[in-house]
Amino acid sequence: MAQRKIDLLLIEKSYDKALQEIDKELVANPSAELYYKKGVVYKNLQNYQQALEAFMQGLQYDANNIVMLEETAECFSILGNNRDAIAFYDKALQVEPNNLAMAGKLGRVHINLEDYKTAYNVFSGIYEKDSSNVYWNKQLAYCSYRVFQREQARDLYEKVLEANPRDHGTYINLIHCYNWKKEANEIMATIDSGLVQFPADKELLFEKAMFFYKTKRYGPAMLQFEKYLEQEKQPAFETLMNYGISTYFAGHEEKALDIFGDLKLLSPNDPLVMYYQSLCNRKLNNFEDAIELMTFAIEATVPDYVSEMYHHLGQMYGQQRQFKESIEALKKAYELNPGKTEVLFEIATTYEEYNSNKTLAMNYYRIYLTESGEAAKNAIYALDRIEKLKEDLFFEE
């Protein structure tokens, strides 16, 4: 009688009352079935921690209950504990080895853990027993791609789309399975088929634009990027960059210059933006701007730490009394970062020690003082050395 009342409350979704009745009955007659029903109530309420506790208690009464093993595994997975979920799915499959639905859930947990090789093995085993299930085939296709079985992934995704042409994600995944150099026709056919099902879909438009871009068909790429940008109001910086490059190579330099101008506002020191701004200006015969921008692009391309590397290299050569190599490295350090004027002082002192022509050292002391101005840390020493070198040169005459 009590069980019937509980079942009726569950059908009516009167979960609070059902829990009260279940708890009453558990005091008198605890059983796996009651704990299972309690777990189901909590699961329906999305209280997965309580549901898990109920299922675990139920398993103490019936350790091989396949339904509760599955529910326990599922709760663990929902709560982010995929490793314990695997343990319970494995145990359930020991009870029912041919339960393909259970195996599919186990495979998904391995995917969640990014253990694609194990997931691939699980879904391959399922495929051997049932190759008609679209959902499982899709999982196997994904795992195949992740374990570098590209051709198998391609064939499976094609099979999935044949069965379910409204599967948007599979169009995107299949496009990425094709070799864009060898299977260009297949890529375009897949994109166009997808656009028939999902007209003006921004992801498919993006794939089409990127395909034209990769294959250096810049005119069509420009047009496709524009169609994509009509749908995507928050495009990635890199996408706008590719749009600008396509526009430049398609021969629309003024239009490209506007695109790169907008990109420069987003990233003022991006060397590639300045590089293409320079190329656009060159095509438009704005040579002064082109030269200035190309200079900035070159300077921005070299990270600051490269100058510091040459600086340290120069000092190490100096410590080994390899003065010629030291000066070359120090000059490179200064060339890459003209703001490091103290390097000029080091060049001067190195010349003074290694080269009998003291004019070189004196000139570098002067350059050091001029370029550093009031910021010169060794100004007094440099001035003293200039005077001393002048005297030496006078007496040598």
From TrEMBL:
Pfam families referenced in this protein's UniProt entry, alphabetically: TPR_8
TPR repeats (start-end): 32-65, 66-99, 307-340
Parts of the chain that traverse the membrane: none
Domain of life according to the entry: Bacteria
Keywords noted in UniProt: Repeat, TPR repeat
Protein name, entry field: Uncharacterized protein
Originating species: Draconibacterium sediminis
